[in-house]
Amino acid sequence: MFSSQEEVFEKEKRYIMQTYKRPRIVLKSGKGALVTDFAGKEYLDCVAGIAVNAVGYSHPEVVTALKEQSSKLMHVSNLYYTEPQVKLAEKLSGLSGMHKVFFCNSGAESVEAALKLATKMTGKAGFIAAEGSFHGRTISSLSVTFGTKFRTVFEPLLLNNVKFVRYNDASAIRNAIDEDTAAVILEPIQGETGVIIPSEGYLREVKKICTEKGVLLILDEIQTGFGRTGRWFGKEHDDVEPDIMTLAKALGAGFPIGAMLAREGLEFEAGEHASTFGGSPLACTAALASIKVIETEKLVERSRELGAYFMDKARAEGLVSNPVVKEIRGKGLMIAIELTKPCAEMVDAARERGVLINCTSDNVIRLVPPLVISKEELDAVISVLRAIVK
Ligand SMILES: *Cc1c(COP(=O)(O)O)cnc(C)c1O
Protein backbone atom coordinates (compact mmCIF):
# COMPACT_ATOMS: atom_id res chain seq x y z
CA MET A 1 0.00 0.00 0.00
CA PHE A 2 2.85 2.36 0.94
CA SER A 3 6.51 1.89 0.22
CA SER A 4 7.76 3.14 3.56
CA GLN A 5 6.52 4.19 7.00
CA GLU A 6 7.84 7.68 6.28
CA GLU A 7 5.38 7.99 3.44
CA VAL A 8 2.53 7.06 5.79
CA PHE A 9 3.63 9.70 8.33
CA GLU A 10 3.95 12.38 5.66
CA LYS A 11 0.60 11.75 4.04
CA GLU A 12 -1.16 11.40 7.38
CA LYS A 13 0.09 14.88 8.25
CA ARG A 14 -0.90 16.23 4.86
CA TYR A 15 -4.42 14.75 4.66
CA ILE A 16 -5.69 13.96 8.17
CA MET A 17 -6.76 16.52 10.75
CA GLN A 18 -4.14 16.46 13.43
CA THR A 19 -6.38 15.45 16.34
CA TYR A 20 -4.15 12.60 17.47
CA LYS A 21 -0.59 12.61 18.73
CA ARG A 22 0.65 9.18 17.68
CA PRO A 23 3.92 7.36 18.14
CA ARG A 24 5.73 6.74 14.87
CA ILE A 25 4.72 3.16 14.27
CA VAL A 26 2.32 1.83 11.65
CA LEU A 27 0.38 -1.22 12.78
CA LYS A 28 -0.40 -3.83 10.15
CA SER A 29 -1.73 -6.98 11.78
CA GLY A 30 -2.52 -8.63 15.08
CA LYS A 31 -3.05 -12.03 16.68
CA GLY A 32 -4.19 -12.62 20.26
CA ALA A 33 -2.56 -9.99 22.44
CA LEU A 34 0.15 -9.19 19.87
CA VAL A 35 0.25 -6.55 17.16
CA THR A 36 2.85 -6.27 14.42
CA ASP A 37 4.09 -3.07 12.81
CA PHE A 38 5.25 -2.15 9.32
CA ALA A 39 8.79 -3.28 10.04
CA GLY A 40 7.64 -6.64 11.41
CA LYS A 41 8.27 -5.76 15.04
CA GLU A 42 5.81 -7.33 17.50
CA TYR A 43 4.25 -5.63 20.50
CA LEU A 44 2.35 -6.98 23.49
CA ASP A 45 -0.66 -4.74 23.44
CA CYS A 46 -1.89 -3.42 26.79
CA VAL A 47 -3.96 -0.73 25.10
CA ALA A 48 -6.07 -3.15 23.04
CA GLY A 49 -7.68 -0.50 20.87
CA ILE A 50 -8.63 1.36 24.09
CA ALA A 51 -10.23 -1.56 25.93
CA VAL A 52 -11.96 -2.71 22.75
CA ASN A 53 -10.17 -5.90 21.71
CA ALA A 54 -11.24 -8.04 24.65
CA VAL A 55 -11.12 -11.28 22.66
CA GLY A 56 -7.78 -10.32 21.11
CA TYR A 57 -6.82 -9.68 17.52
CA SER A 58 -8.05 -11.89 14.68
CA HIS A 59 -9.96 -14.29 16.85
CA PRO A 60 -10.87 -17.12 14.42
CA GLU A 61 -14.51 -17.32 15.61
CA VAL A 62 -15.01 -13.61 15.03
CA VAL A 63 -13.19 -13.66 11.68
CA THR A 64 -15.27 -16.59 10.42
CA ALA A 65 -18.56 -15.05 11.58
CA LEU A 66 -17.73 -11.75 9.88
CA LYS A 67 -16.63 -13.45 6.67
CA GLU A 68 -19.86 -15.39 6.46
CA GLN A 69 -22.14 -12.51 7.36
CA SER A 70 -20.38 -10.03 5.07
CA SER A 71 -21.01 -12.29 2.10
CA LYS A 72 -24.73 -12.43 2.99
CA LEU A 73 -25.80 -9.03 4.29
CA MET A 74 -23.85 -6.15 5.78
CA HIS A 75 -26.39 -3.38 6.04
CA VAL A 76 -30.04 -2.74 5.19
CA SER A 77 -30.94 0.06 7.65
CA ASN A 78 -33.52 -0.16 10.40
CA LEU A 79 -36.40 0.11 7.97
CA TYR A 80 -36.36 -3.72 7.97
CA TYR A 81 -36.03 -6.57 10.46
CA THR A 82 -32.76 -8.50 10.56
CA GLU A 83 -32.00 -11.58 12.62
CA PRO A 84 -28.59 -10.80 14.17
CA GLN A 85 -29.94 -7.56 15.65
CA VAL A 86 -32.84 -9.29 17.40
CA LYS A 87 -30.61 -12.10 18.57
CA LEU A 88 -28.06 -9.69 20.01
CA ALA A 89 -30.76 -7.67 21.77
CA GLU A 90 -32.06 -10.83 23.43
CA LYS A 91 -28.52 -11.78 24.46
CA LEU A 92 -27.69 -8.35 25.89
CA SER A 93 -30.93 -8.21 27.79
CA GLY A 94 -30.19 -11.62 29.32
CA LEU A 95 -26.60 -10.75 30.25
CA SER A 96 -27.36 -7.34 31.73
CA GLY A 97 -30.80 -7.80 33.24
CA MET A 98 -31.94 -4.71 31.36
CA HIS A 99 -35.22 -4.72 29.49
CA LYS A 100 -34.74 -3.33 25.99
CA VAL A 101 -31.97 -2.10 23.70
CA PHE A 102 -31.38 0.73 21.24
CA PHE A 103 -28.46 0.11 18.88
CA CYS A 104 -26.01 2.73 17.63
CA ASN A 105 -22.39 2.81 16.49
CA SER A 106 -20.20 4.23 19.23
CA GLY A 107 -19.93 5.08 22.88
CA ALA A 108 -20.77 8.75 22.55
CA GLU A 109 -23.87 7.89 20.55
CA SER A 110 -25.10 5.53 23.24
CA VAL A 111 -24.62 8.30 25.84
CA GLU A 112 -26.43 10.65 23.48
CA ALA A 113 -29.34 8.19 23.34
CA ALA A 114 -29.30 7.82 27.14
CA LEU A 115 -29.48 11.58 27.70
CA LYS A 116 -32.31 11.88 25.19
CA LEU A 117 -34.25 9.03 26.77
CA ALA A 118 -33.80 10.48 30.25
CA THR A 119 -35.01 13.88 29.05
CA LYS A 120 -37.98 12.34 27.30
CA MET A 121 -39.02 10.19 30.26
CA THR A 122 -38.66 12.89 32.93
CA GLY A 123 -39.48 16.00 30.92
CA LYS A 124 -36.34 17.56 32.42
CA ALA A 125 -32.91 18.40 31.08
CA GLY A 126 -30.74 18.73 34.16
CA PHE A 127 -27.94 16.20 34.69
CA ILE A 128 -25.50 15.39 37.44
CA ALA A 129 -22.15 13.95 36.47
CA ALA A 130 -18.95 13.29 38.37
CA GLU A 131 -15.71 15.20 38.47
CA GLY A 132 -13.24 13.23 36.39
CA SER A 133 -15.98 11.74 34.22
CA PHE A 134 -15.57 10.86 30.56
CA HIS A 135 -18.66 10.16 28.48
CA GLY A 136 -17.69 11.08 24.94
CA ARG A 137 -16.97 13.86 22.48
CA THR A 138 -20.28 14.71 20.81
CA ILE A 139 -21.54 18.02 22.07
CA SER A 140 -24.07 16.54 24.51
CA SER A 141 -21.89 13.71 25.80
CA LEU A 142 -19.17 16.34 26.17
CA SER A 143 -21.58 18.37 28.30
CA VAL A 144 -21.46 15.63 30.94
CA THR A 145 -17.71 15.09 30.51
CA PHE A 146 -15.47 16.78 33.06
CA GLY A 147 -12.21 18.48 32.27
CA THR A 148 -11.36 21.74 30.57
CA LYS A 149 -8.98 20.10 28.11
CA PHE A 150 -11.95 18.45 26.39
CA ARG A 151 -14.46 21.27 26.76
CA THR A 152 -13.11 24.80 26.74
CA VAL A 153 -12.98 25.61 23.03
CA PHE A 154 -16.53 24.26 22.55
CA GLU A 155 -18.25 26.21 25.30
CA PRO A 156 -21.05 27.09 25.74
CA LEU A 157 -22.09 23.47 25.29
CA LEU A 158 -25.67 22.59 24.41
CA LEU A 159 -26.70 21.06 27.73
CA ASN A 160 -26.36 23.97 30.10
CA ASN A 161 -27.76 22.44 33.26
CA VAL A 162 -25.05 19.98 34.25
CA LYS A 163 -23.62 19.85 37.75
CA PHE A 164 -20.35 18.08 38.46
CA VAL A 165 -19.95 16.58 41.91
CA ARG A 166 -17.15 14.69 43.61
CA TYR A 167 -16.89 11.06 42.47
CA ASN A 168 -17.32 8.48 45.21
CA ASP A 169 -19.39 10.85 47.34
CA ALA A 170 -23.05 9.87 47.36
CA SER A 171 -24.13 12.73 49.62
CA ALA A 172 -22.76 15.21 47.05
CA ILE A 173 -25.26 13.74 44.60
CA ARG A 174 -28.07 13.99 47.14
CA ASN A 175 -27.27 17.68 47.64
CA ALA A 176 -27.00 18.42 43.92
CA ILE A 177 -30.35 16.94 42.88
CA ASP A 178 -33.01 19.61 42.36
CA GLU A 179 -36.40 19.88 40.63
CA ASP A 180 -34.74 20.12 37.19
CA THR A 181 -32.64 16.96 37.51
CA ALA A 182 -33.46 14.27 34.96
CA ALA A 183 -30.64 11.86 35.71
CA VAL A 184 -27.33 11.12 37.34
CA ILE A 185 -24.71 9.69 34.97
CA LEU A 186 -21.69 7.78 36.29
CA GLU A 187 -19.02 5.32 35.25
CA PRO A 188 -18.90 2.31 37.63
CA ILE A 189 -15.12 2.75 37.51
CA GLN A 190 -13.77 5.91 35.90
CA GLY A 191 -11.67 4.88 32.93
CA GLU A 192 -10.18 7.83 31.10
CA THR A 193 -9.29 9.68 34.31
CA GLY A 194 -7.08 6.79 35.38
CA VAL A 195 -9.06 3.82 36.66
CA ILE A 196 -10.67 5.46 39.67
CA ILE A 197 -12.43 2.77 41.72
CA PRO A 198 -15.19 3.97 44.06
CA SER A 199 -15.71 2.49 47.51
CA GLU A 200 -17.95 -0.51 47.88
CA GLY A 201 -21.55 0.56 48.31
CA TYR A 202 -21.18 3.90 46.50
CA LEU A 203 -23.27 2.98 43.48
CA ARG A 204 -25.83 1.26 45.66
CA GLU A 205 -26.17 4.38 47.78
CA VAL A 206 -26.48 6.57 44.66
CA LYS A 207 -29.18 4.28 43.31
CA LYS A 208 -31.07 4.56 46.58
CA ILE A 209 -30.91 8.34 46.48
CA CYS A 210 -32.03 8.41 42.84
CA THR A 211 -35.01 6.17 43.57
CA GLU A 212 -35.96 8.26 46.58
CA LYS A 213 -35.81 11.50 44.60
CA GLY A 214 -37.37 10.17 41.41
CA VAL A 215 -34.22 10.74 39.36
CA LEU A 216 -32.87 8.27 36.79
CA LEU A 217 -29.47 6.58 37.16
CA ILE A 218 -27.46 6.15 33.96
CA LEU A 219 -24.43 3.87 34.24
CA ASP A 220 -21.86 4.33 31.50
CA GLU A 221 -20.40 0.83 31.08
CA ILE A 222 -18.75 1.60 27.77
CA GLN A 223 -15.31 0.80 29.16
CA THR A 224 -16.18 -1.47 32.08
CA GLY A 225 -18.46 -3.82 30.12
CA PHE A 226 -17.83 -7.35 28.87
CA GLY A 227 -15.52 -8.76 31.49
CA ARG A 228 -13.00 -5.94 31.63
CA THR A 229 -13.29 -5.62 35.42
CA GLY A 230 -13.68 -9.33 36.17
CA ARG A 231 -17.49 -9.23 35.96
CA TRP A 232 -19.69 -9.01 32.91
CA PHE A 233 -20.50 -5.44 33.90
CA GLY A 234 -19.04 -3.04 36.47
CA LYS A 235 -22.44 -2.62 38.13
CA GLU A 236 -22.19 -6.20 39.44
CA HIS A 237 -19.42 -5.25 41.87
CA ASP A 238 -22.01 -3.22 43.75
CA ASP A 239 -25.00 -5.32 42.81
CA VAL A 240 -26.87 -2.30 41.47
CA GLU A 241 -29.46 -2.00 38.70
CA PRO A 242 -29.32 1.27 36.78
CA ASP A 243 -32.30 2.70 34.90
CA ILE A 244 -30.23 3.16 31.76
CA MET A 245 -26.93 1.65 30.73
CA THR A 246 -24.56 2.46 27.87
CA LEU A 247 -22.27 0.01 26.07
CA ALA A 248 -19.75 0.15 23.23
CA LYS A 249 -15.97 -0.47 23.20
CA ALA A 250 -15.57 -4.25 23.69
CA LEU A 251 -19.10 -5.02 22.50
CA GLY A 252 -18.16 -5.71 18.89
CA ALA A 253 -14.65 -7.21 19.12
CA GLY A 254 -13.32 -4.18 17.24
CA PHE A 255 -16.25 -3.69 14.91
CA PRO A 256 -17.94 -0.37 15.78
CA ILE A 257 -21.19 -0.83 17.66
CA GLY A 258 -22.85 0.84 20.63
CA ALA A 259 -25.96 0.06 22.63
CA MET A 260 -28.17 1.89 25.09
CA LEU A 261 -30.22 -0.35 27.37
CA ALA A 262 -33.05 0.63 29.66
CA ARG A 263 -35.20 -0.93 32.33
CA GLU A 264 -38.86 -1.71 31.77
CA GLY A 265 -41.00 1.36 31.27
CA LEU A 266 -38.26 3.50 29.72
CA GLU A 267 -38.63 3.53 25.96
CA PHE A 268 -38.54 5.57 22.83
CA GLU A 269 -41.52 5.37 20.53
CA ALA A 270 -41.55 5.17 16.75
CA GLY A 271 -39.67 8.05 15.19
CA GLU A 272 -38.31 9.48 18.42
CA HIS A 273 -34.77 8.26 17.86
CA ALA A 274 -32.99 6.46 15.05
CA SER A 275 -29.67 5.54 13.49
CA THR A 276 -28.94 4.63 9.86
CA PHE A 277 -26.16 2.20 10.70
CA GLY A 278 -27.16 1.23 14.25
CA GLY A 279 -27.36 -2.51 14.84
CA SER A 280 -26.41 -3.58 11.32
CA PRO A 281 -26.32 -7.32 10.62
CA LEU A 282 -22.54 -7.20 10.36
CA ALA A 283 -22.00 -5.26 13.60
CA CYS A 284 -24.42 -7.47 15.52
CA THR A 285 -22.78 -10.61 14.13
CA ALA A 286 -19.42 -9.36 15.38
CA ALA A 287 -20.90 -8.72 18.82
CA LEU A 288 -22.61 -12.11 18.99
CA ALA A 289 -19.39 -13.86 18.01
CA SER A 290 -17.42 -11.87 20.56
CA ILE A 291 -19.87 -12.61 23.38
CA LYS A 292 -19.76 -16.30 22.48
CA VAL A 293 -15.96 -16.27 22.75
CA ILE A 294 -16.15 -14.50 26.12
CA GLU A 295 -18.52 -17.21 27.31
CA THR A 296 -16.81 -20.29 25.93
CA GLU A 297 -13.30 -19.16 26.89
CA LYS A 298 -14.54 -17.96 30.29
CA LEU A 299 -12.89 -14.59 29.78
CA VAL A 300 -14.81 -12.86 32.56
CA GLU A 301 -13.37 -15.26 35.16
CA ARG A 302 -10.03 -15.06 33.40
CA SER A 303 -10.01 -11.28 33.67
CA ARG A 304 -10.64 -11.59 37.41
CA GLU A 305 -7.92 -14.20 37.88
CA LEU A 306 -5.33 -12.49 35.72
CA GLY A 307 -6.04 -9.17 37.41
CA ALA A 308 -5.26 -10.75 40.77
CA TYR A 309 -2.23 -12.51 39.29
CA PHE A 310 -0.89 -9.20 37.97
CA MET A 311 -1.28 -7.51 41.36
CA ASP A 312 0.50 -10.34 43.20
CA LYS A 313 3.29 -10.45 40.69
CA ALA A 314 3.67 -6.64 40.64
CA ARG A 315 4.04 -6.77 44.41
CA ALA A 316 6.43 -9.73 44.42
CA GLU A 317 8.63 -8.22 41.73
CA GLY A 318 8.97 -4.92 43.56
CA LEU A 319 6.97 -2.84 41.11
CA VAL A 320 4.56 -1.71 43.83
CA SER A 321 7.36 -0.60 46.16
CA ASN A 322 9.26 1.23 43.43
CA PRO A 323 9.69 4.86 44.56
CA VAL A 324 8.38 6.20 41.23
CA VAL A 325 5.18 4.20 41.69
CA LYS A 326 2.57 5.93 43.82
CA GLU A 327 -0.08 3.25 43.56
CA ILE A 328 -1.14 0.26 41.50
CA ARG A 329 -4.88 -0.30 41.45
CA GLY A 330 -7.35 -2.20 39.37
CA LYS A 331 -10.28 -4.54 39.01
CA GLY A 332 -9.85 -7.50 36.71
CA LEU A 333 -7.76 -6.47 33.73
CA MET A 334 -8.52 -2.77 34.12
CA ILE A 335 -5.35 -1.65 35.83
CA ALA A 336 -3.68 1.67 36.56
CA ILE A 337 -0.15 2.41 37.61
CA GLU A 338 -0.06 5.86 39.11
CA LEU A 339 3.39 7.40 39.08
CA THR A 340 4.95 10.24 40.99
CA LYS A 341 5.96 11.84 37.67
CA PRO A 342 4.66 12.16 34.08
CA CYS A 343 4.61 8.88 32.19
CA ALA A 344 5.08 9.94 28.55
CA GLU A 345 8.73 8.86 28.44
CA MET A 346 7.88 5.47 29.85
CA VAL A 347 5.30 4.89 27.18
CA ASP A 348 8.05 5.40 24.60
CA ALA A 349 10.50 3.21 26.49
CA ALA A 350 7.95 0.40 26.81
CA ARG A 351 7.20 0.56 23.10
CA GLU A 352 10.88 0.26 22.27
CA ARG A 353 10.89 -2.89 24.38
CA GLY A 354 7.84 -4.26 22.63
CA VAL A 355 4.98 -3.35 24.97
CA LEU A 356 2.20 -0.90 24.12
CA ILE A 357 0.83 1.11 27.05
CA ASN A 358 -0.69 4.57 27.31
CA CYS A 359 -1.19 7.36 29.83
CA THR A 360 -4.76 8.27 30.69
CA SER A 361 -3.81 11.32 32.64
CA ASP A 362 -0.36 12.85 32.89
CA ASN A 363 0.99 10.44 35.46
CA VAL A 364 -1.25 7.37 35.16
CA ILE A 365 -0.40 4.38 32.97
CA ARG A 366 -3.51 2.37 32.14
CA LEU A 367 -3.30 -1.30 31.25
CA VAL A 368 -6.32 -2.82 29.50
CA PRO A 369 -4.87 -5.79 27.61
CA PRO A 370 -7.00 -8.27 25.66
CA LEU A 371 -8.63 -10.67 28.13
CA VAL A 372 -7.04 -13.54 26.21
CA ILE A 373 -3.52 -12.44 27.20
CA SER A 374 -1.52 -15.28 28.77
CA LYS A 375 0.23 -15.36 32.14
CA GLU A 376 3.57 -15.54 30.38
CA GLU A 377 2.71 -12.45 28.38
CA LEU A 378 1.68 -10.63 31.56
CA ASP A 379 5.00 -11.66 33.11
CA ALA A 380 6.75 -10.12 30.12
CA VAL A 381 4.75 -6.91 30.54
CA ILE A 382 5.73 -6.72 34.22
CA SER A 383 9.39 -7.21 33.49
CA VAL A 384 9.32 -4.45 30.89
CA LEU A 385 7.48 -2.17 33.34
CA ARG A 386 10.11 -2.92 36.00
CA ALA A 387 12.86 -2.03 33.59
CA ILE A 388 11.35 1.29 32.55
CA VAL A 389 9.90 2.57 35.83
CA LYS A 390 12.95 4.28 37.16
C1 LIG B 1 -14.63 5.54 25.38
C2 LIG B 1 -15.70 5.99 26.26
C3 LIG B 1 -16.77 6.76 25.78
C4 LIG B 1 -16.84 7.27 24.36
O1 LIG B 1 -16.90 6.25 23.42
P1 LIG B 1 -16.63 6.56 21.86
O2 LIG B 1 -16.89 5.26 21.19
O3 LIG B 1 -15.23 7.03 21.74
O4 LIG B 1 -17.61 7.62 21.46
C5 LIG B 1 -17.78 7.10 26.66
N1 LIG B 1 -17.75 6.69 27.95
C6 LIG B 1 -16.75 5.95 28.43
C7 LIG B 1 -16.79 5.50 29.86
C8 LIG B 1 -15.69 5.58 27.61
O5 LIG B 1 -14.67 4.87 28.13
Write the layout of secondary structure elements.
Elements: H1 5-15, E1 27-31, E2 34-37, E3 42-45, H2 48-51, H3 60-72, H4 83-96, E4 100-104, H5 107-122, E5 126-130, H6 139-143, H7 148-151, E6 162-165, H8 170-176, E7 181-186, H9 202-213, E8 216-220, E9 244-247, E10 258-262, H10 281-296, H11 299-316, E11 325-331, E12 334-339, H12 344-352, E13 355-356, E14 358-361, E15 364-367, H13 375-388
Parallel strand pairs: 3-13, 5-6, 5-7, 7-8, 8-9
Antiparallel strand pairs: 1-2, 2-3, 4-10, 9-10, 11-12, 12-15, 14-15
Would you kindly provide a brief summary of this structure?
The chain has 390 residues and is an alpha/beta fold. Helix content is 37%, strand content 18%.
